[in-house]
Amino acid sequence: MDNTILDFVENFMEKNKDYLENIEYSLKSEIKNFSKYSLTKPVSYALASGKRIRPLILLITCDALGGAKSNAYPCAVAVELLHTESIIHDDIIDQDNHRRGKDAFHVKYGYNTSILTADFVFGLILSISSKYNDKSISKCISEAALKMCEGEWAELKIDPEIYKMNWNEYISIISNKTATLFEASAKLGAYLAKGTPKEIEALSIFGLNLGIAYQIQDDILDIKDKHKIVTALSIDGHDVISHLSSMSQNYADLAKNELNILKDSKYKELLIELTEFTIIRPY
Predict the structure, then answer these.
(1) How far is CA 91 from the centre of its chain?
(2) For residues 38 and 126, what is the distance between their CA atoms, to the nearest angstrom?
């Protein structure tokens, strides 16, 4: 791997070290609040080793608009839990046996426990979101969950071996399945910082485009997996990988353009670097 990329990734992680450590602490603290329930142990397994991109987006966005992080951490936990719940289901649907260098959840705990744990995680999310008096918070999380299911359902209906998917279909699916939670994370950060309607809208679009770029990069990394829908993608007159790389950069640029609404600050720079990390990350 290019040393320049490795240096960038290491530098990016170091700059966000405090955020990431506090996210881990908040995740463990929230789960500990429910320790009387037996399913907290498998939830902890499901949460281990994530990149925490979504809560990171929420927290940096909140900081960029002058919000209070202390009020944002529970919400950051909620979006990571929603992502975790989706992974449990996604690995079952895709029949993936490994995730983050270890056994996928359903391999470790079985299908029955997987279903119950995903339901339990939704209960945790509801409990956390109920802490906020602002109904916009729970509504945003709910809308993200609904769109994620819609995207998963649309993907489920595609058999890559017999169906050729056009670009618009592909973008529609990944926008719902993946990018909607990026969008919600940025929007929630802006909500919690009491951003203006224009700021909330711009940062929501930032999150959406960032999420699309992120998923395209994921699909580039997974292009050899015949079970992934990206293998059903047909691009007239273009090499699929080259087109994906170009469009990943395009959506990343669109995301960065929305950050012009922010005042110059270290937090704005972190969001720009997060966008760049999205499209060059090696994993």
Answers:
(1) 15
(2) 18
